[in-house]
């Protein structure tokens, strides 16, 4: 009986960050307990009941300690009214991730707080570079499921089962020219850190897991053997 309760407690503690049958080959990036494997704004974000929460009024970059290049990333997120955050991909530690890396918008598009959004500022867009389709976010307060694939120059975002972005970086920024007419050297990055970019609004994250692709998988395998 004692063993039963130990196992039950363990399963409940991992419930928010479990790996399912659809996630074979995926590596959990968040253990549901603390920020082991993460760096940056660990004093701004919190872990509450197996969920990463950025409280209102706090912000900063919460980044993975490891760098990733080609991968499939899955995670759940929950917004509050008007919330604004971002997903950093192939980003360096220093500098603005939206330019020195890439930032995929995490945003409550329908809030009156954002009446004049440009297409490249909507949820799932590569900020300043490539717009995502709108209309697939769940109501504020509900969990959304997102999948991001970075494979060479192709960046894909699937939100709640709907493809909202399928961008070829060579085509959306030919010759380095972007929609926002700003300099985005991060588009040339082949790898970098992943993470969340807080802007003072409460947002929650869970079930954060990653599957390396192709050469990235081989590279990590070689590192593990060393």
Task: Describe the structure concisely for a colleague.
With 226 residues, the chain is mainly β. Helices cover 14% and strands 38% of the residues.
Structural write-up:
By secondary structure, this protein is mainly beta. The chain has a single domain, classed as Exo-inulinase, domain 1 (Jelly Rolls), CATH 2.60.120.560. It is 14% helix and 38% strand. It has four helices and 13 strands. The strands form two sheets. Strands 1, 3, 4, 6, 9, 10, 11 and 13 form an eight-stranded antiparallel sheet that branches. It has a five-stranded antiparallel sheet with strand order 2-5-12-7-8. Strand 9 and strand 10 form a beta hairpin. The chain is globular and about 45 Å long. The N and C termini lie far apart (43 Å). The N terminus and C terminus are likely disordered.
Structural class: mainly beta
What is the string of SSEs from the N terminus onward?
Answer: HEEEEEEEHEEEEHEEH
Radius of gyration from the CA trace?
Answer: 18 Å
Quickly name the level 1 CATH class. Answer: Mainly Beta
The total strand number stands at 13
The number of helical elements comes to: 4
Q: Mean pLDDT, rounded to whole units?
A: 89
Give the full name of the CATH homologous superfamily: Exo-inulinase, domain 1
CATH architectural designation: Sandwich
Estimated share of beta-strand residues: 35-45%
Uncertain stretches = 1-20, 216-226
Gross geometry: globular
Q: Profile the largest sheet.
A: 8 strands, antiparallel
Distance separating the two termini? 43 Å
Helix content: 10-25%
How many domains would you count in the coordinates? 1
Any idea of the CATH topology? Answer: Jelly Rolls
């Amino acid at each position: 009986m004692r063993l039963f309760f130990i196992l039950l407690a363990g399963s409940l503690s991992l419930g928010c960050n479990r790996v399912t049958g659809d996630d074979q080959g995926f590596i959990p990036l968040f253990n549901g307990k603390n920020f082991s494997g993460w760096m940056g704004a660990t004093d701004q974000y919190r872990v509450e009941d197996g969920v990463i929460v950025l409280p209102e009024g706090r912000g900063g970059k919460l980044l993975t300690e490891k760098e990733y290049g080609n991968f499939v990333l899955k995670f759940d997120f929950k917004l509050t009214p008007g919330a604004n955050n971002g997903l950093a991909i192939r980003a360096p530690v220093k500098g603005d991730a939206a330019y020195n890396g890439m930032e995929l918008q995490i945003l409550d598009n329908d809030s009156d707080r954002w009446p004049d959004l440009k297409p490249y500022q909507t949820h799932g867009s590569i900020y300043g570079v490539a717009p995502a389709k709108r209309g697939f976010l769940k109501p504020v307060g509900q969990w959304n499921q997102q999948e991001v694939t970075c494979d060479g120059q192709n960046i894909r975002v699937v939100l709640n089962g709907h493809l909202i972005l399928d961008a070829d970086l060579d085509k959306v920024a030919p010759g380095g020219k972007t929609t926002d007419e700003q300099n985005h050297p991060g588009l040339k990055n082949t790898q970098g850190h992943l993470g969340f970019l807080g802007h003072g609004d409460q947002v929650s994250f869970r079930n954060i897991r990653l599957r390396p692709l192709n050469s990235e998988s081989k590279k990590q395998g070689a590192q593990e053997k060393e």
